[in-house]
Amino acid sequence: MARFSLKPGVTAALAATTLLGLAACSDPGAPAAAGSAPASSATGVKQFNLSPEQDRVAADVDPAAAALVPESIRKDGKLTVAVSPFAAPLAVYATDNKTPVGNEVDIAVALAQTLGLEADIVPTAWADWPLGVESGKYEAVLSNVTVTEERKLKFDFASYRDDKLGFYAKADSSLTKVESAPDVAGKRVIVGSGTNQESILLRWDEENKKNGLAPVEFQYYDDDSASSLALQSGRADLTFGPNATAAFKAASDAKTKLVGLVDGGWPLKASIAATTKKGNGFAAAAQAGLNHLIEDGSYARILDRWGLTAEAVRKSELNPAGLPKT
Fold first, then answer.
1. Quick one: three-class SS letters along the chain?
2. pLDDT for residue 220
């Protein structure tokens, strides 16, 4: 079975750079919590293992998928994967402050295993992955990359998660459903400035005002602590942002609850995908490997381990429809 190796990175600087790089696409949200063995307590709080010692879901080799790996990648027996440790549960530094752990790392390791390769995980600032892939420094990127038509001009993709945004309310809130524009009319909603979710909420607000409904009260905060305080104190009704990090936070402290999921490219579907160099052939191998993980149940166990079942895909797609440039 394939092994897992790690190239150490510059932890504090990299984490800060990654947060800045992702802010243009989404608000990464929740900070990491202390690690322990995965479990759920009587209070409903789930304990995530964020220690460097990971009991990962193991995957077996799929000969058909392995045969699709280009010789240029297969020859050294390794799959070099860029992962940005920006926020749990996607990828974050473990309690030793140097080992990347999380869903993206687990998927990368399992994908390498099913292709008969050793995963070589490289901590990478999010802004640096495009040049790294184009130059051949990284053979794949698993770092919450959303497929866009503009990115498809330079990269190939194999999808592995749906890009979802989540509405979260205080755990004891009377709010139970947010599915469309009327559900946010008159609500006080915390959202990241300049983000895709803000753009969606602005469109919903305009629709409501045209229909004579109460406007949304937009609230903006500089950090997660201030945002959490506003929600818990009753100064805000909802938060709206990337589902993955919000789901992790809700599971970790049981202070919030999911009340609605929206496609990241609303009204269009958006896909998160393994990203590879354009035309080198590896994306087809990645797609086959991911579909093997889906079919044998390994994929579902990984997503469940990190609380991301709501973002699961039925199958990996090769170069799925991407979000338009505007």
1. CCCEEECCCCHHHHHHHHHHHHHCCCCCCCCCCCCCCCEECCCCCEECCCCCCCCCCCCCCCHHHHCCCCHHHHCCCEEEEEECCCECCCEEECCCCCCEECHHHHHHHHHHHHCCCEEEEEECCHHHHHHHHHHCCCCEECCCCECECCHHHCEEEEEEEECEEEEEEECCCCCCCCCCHHHHCCCEEEECCCCHHHHHHHHHHHHHHHCCCCCCEEECCCCHHHHHHHHHCCCCCEEEEEHHHHHHHHHHHCCEEEEEEEECECCECCEEEEEEECCCCHHHHHHHHHHHHHHCCHHHHHHHHCCCHHHCCCCCCECCCCECCC
2. 97
Q: What is the pTM of this model?
A: 0.86
* Positive or negative torsion for Cα 54, 39, 263, 218: negative
What are the structure tokens assigned to 244, written together? 């993955």
CB-based contacts of 269: which residues, under 8 Å, 6+ apart?
A: 162, 163, 263, 321
- For the chain, 326 residues long, the average pLDDT of each consecutive 10-residue run is 42 37 35 36 78 95 98 96 94 96 98 98 95 96 96 97 98 96 98 95 98 98 94 98 96 96 95 97 98 98 96 98 89
Produce one character per residue of 272-309: b if its CB has 16 or more CB atoms within 10 Å, e if not.
Answer: bbbbbbbeeebbbbbbbbbbbbbeeebbebbbebbbbe
Residue-wise pLDDT for 117-152, tens only, equals 999 999 999 999 999 999 999 999 999 999 999 999
